[in-house]
Records
---
Amino acid sequence: MQRGTQVYAGAALFALLVTASLVRAETKKEFRFTVGPRPSLSVINQYGPISAKPSAGNEIIVVAVLKSDKVEVDQSKNGNRIDLVSHLLPGASIDNARVEYQITAPPGTNLTLHTTTGDIQVEKMHGDLAIEGASANVDVRDVANCHVHVNTLNGPIMLTNVTDGHVELTSVSGNITLRKVDGPLVRVNSSSGSIRYDGDFAFGGEYSLTSHTGDIEATAPSYASIDVTARSVKGQVDNEFPLQPKTHSAFSMDTVRNLVGTAGKAASSVKLLSFSGKIHLKKR
Amino acid sequence: MTCAEFQRVLPDGIDEGWSAQQKSHLGSCSACSSLVEDLNAISREARLLRACAEPSPRVWDSIADSIQEIESELDLVAAEARALQASEEPSPRVWNAIASAIQEMDSELELIASEARALQASDDPSVRVWNSLEIALRKEGLIRQPRSEHSVIPFMKRWRWAWMVPVTAAVLIAVGFLNRTQPSVRIADVTPPKPPAAVQPLSSPEDQQVLEAVSRRAPALRATYEDNLRSVNAYIQDAEESVKSNPNDEQAEQYLMDAYEQRAMVYEMALDRALP
């Protein structure tokens, strides 16, 4: 009886040690880089999220949590440019090669962030952003005076409070949402995902929202100063915004599928184009 | 004689001279006399101007020479053209040279095609090749074992608290069990996109190559790429038809460019270094 108990205890201990060794495989690494003004940081991840926040000082700190020893992080620094790459080792898979990156960097840092799956979150940065994620949820908020370029396949993209941005968003089937986004250029291109814009169309900019089958909904305040062209080749265009009609237009005036008009001083150009999606221009 | 009557005969008077009655009016009317003076002055200036503007005979001769030169060149060109038109086919030597060049190109194309077929048919390199590559890379220091000193929890410190291992393990087993019930990686955790109007096969060889590359590198993502390529192809097809039916439509061209941009993006994402 006592021998049996010892066997059970040994087996339990063995199981616990195995588990402990698995736990040990998840590691946390911290990378610190002292940088000059306007540094560039590139993080290429395969699986897992990336988040970036501003920090005071002139140091970039990246904390990487590695799921297992089947993945490692390669780093390089050349002058003001830093590259971090998740390097998959033999036996790596989508389950064990996950790396979570947490970045704190000076606000003016230019960021290039790639991940195949996992969320990408960036907030309160002022450097240029180039973000790519096949199925990544991309969330960018409170950024200003920068380029924001985002590409996804089916990952949704959300931009909130982007001021004076040069914004280019492309997604095949992910839904794209823009709240309080303005700048000299705001260009959104989607295939089947929907596009929603809620903002002022300010800055005397060029706003172009284009989709193939996805619906486009644009909401602007009554004081918006816009020159609107809305057209859906096979869909419908609904307008609730008070627009002054334009006498001259490049295409036929089928009012069900086309809409042209201006409001205020028509400072910003707004093009809402869809092939078969529904277009809805609303007043806030 | 009144001023009106005088001005009616003014052109004739300037050319042919004045009658006694007209001279008498000129003598008594300052307006008509100053008009006649102005007209005479203009006439004199015009004669001087004409004399200045007229090119010298040397210029005319030079122009005539140039025209003659151009005419003779044109005659030469015409004669050459007539000779070329009248001539028969190129000599057999020329034909032979062309034929040999074509043959050479043909054999090069055949070689390229066979290489391509061999490349297409070939599988990944053998395990031995991968192993030798790995050994070489390890020697170079490009592949490293994970270093324990990077770990935040040092090895010795962990064993000083060895009594915590069973407790932690039990907790982690429970957490692991709970985690297992949820997907560890969120793929396409989004509102499902609208399906394309018609599900079409991906017949383009480029699409197939891209999907094969994705299958090799990240099999779990193949379905995602396949769906999205289908969606993009439908976009391109509609945009192309729109451009065909409205060739001068700027917006239709914009659709097409956007559609192509989407496909380029998908290809780039499939083939760039973001994938494992």
---
Amino acid sequence: MQPTFSSSRILLPVRPWFIAFSLLFALVLNFLPTSAWSWVPDWVALVLIFWSIREPRRVGMGAGFLLGLAMDVADVSLLGQHALAYVLASYVASYLSRRILWFPIRLQALHVLPLLLIVQLVQFGARVMPGASLPGLDYFIGPLVAVFFWWPLTFLLLLPQYQPVSRDDNRPI
Amino acid sequence: MDHQPPPFFKRGPAPLAQLSFYAALSMALIFVDSRFQTLELLRQGVSLITRPVQQFAHTPVRAIDNAGVYLSDITRMEQENARLKRMQLEASDTVLRTRQLEVENERLRKLLDVKQRQNGNGRVAQVLHAARDPFSRKVIVDKGLQDKIVAGQPVVDELGVVGQVTRVFPFVSEITLITDKDQAVPVQVVRNGLRSVVFGLGDGRLELRFMPANADVEVGDDLVTSGLDGIFLAGTPVAKVVEIERDASYSFARIYCAPVAGVENFGEVMVMDPKETVVIPAELIPESGNGAGKGKGAAKPVPKKRRLKEE
């Protein structure tokens, strides 16, 4: 696979432990006590969507469900609220992965925005319908902030897959 | 015959099948968790895995906080120490007299044969962090099942009521603040003894609901717990009335209050021991069999009352 559709570099295959590590690291970032700032993006959702687009056969709804369950317990929110949101986002991301990868990174970010909004809206519905208090509009700023992290995230997470440029003058191709 | 070629790649179940399975599972979890309290064991199990990760995530934050305290000016510490000493000296007179009054009160109550007032005991807990859930107002404290905390215990700080323990995990527990939406505390106006219930609004304020438009409540009135719920000890400060809207077109006045305790401050709180349940002596409970002579109206409400108090 290439980093972008127009790139001529071929990436190494992804290492499964790196996917697991990045998801776990996103979980740690989400566990930071940042409840005072509601605009902090949902890192788990972002990384999960990234891998669902890049590697839909390795990361999917099962990982989303388990991570969502962990988030629910750690956030003391309704059990299943994050799980449902992540499962839906992961499904849509893997469904659209062939399409999204044909865009340059900036337009990919625009495709990711509605996916992140799905994550917030599903949770909003799951909580407000049984009668929780409204969180305020800044609840939806998180996805807008997260979109700006798409380019650095793509670079960071694909970094282990770049192979060194080795020039061999004797090689025919 | 409809023969499909074997797939080139092993893909597992179709995405749509996976989606319906996981979505149904999560929706079932959401439904069960919002309607019944039967998933506590699952929560406690998962928290055994997430808790260490959470602690790991909080380590650098706590280290930075501690460094800030360590590096803070020593003169400021000395000043604070002197101020605290002065405050303790000022309060000691009242404390000594209170102790004497308590003994006297106990003796008088014994003379009058009134039920003993309960004294509050509790354990100090440190607020670890606010829950990252934007839909509710909850905090996590560092005492849990290991310290025999049970759900329902009231939580206070040095100024007044903070909230109530709603969920207990092995090492931590979750406290719902009184400002959480629809969290209710039965209160009493100090000035005239008027009883009511104060509800959280979810935005940091509290509301005294179902008070008639001409109720004798004024801005600045102090509200203390009435103790009628059997959970909070009577007389703990809860809130102060800050704004009253009396509109003749509504039957109830809108009375907004601000919490007295440092509800949104994260320091140390006291988790009070659960109140002893009030048991009605056996001789006061009429037998269900011999209620024929008393009539139905008198006999019926008693068992209901008893059940309420035992809960």
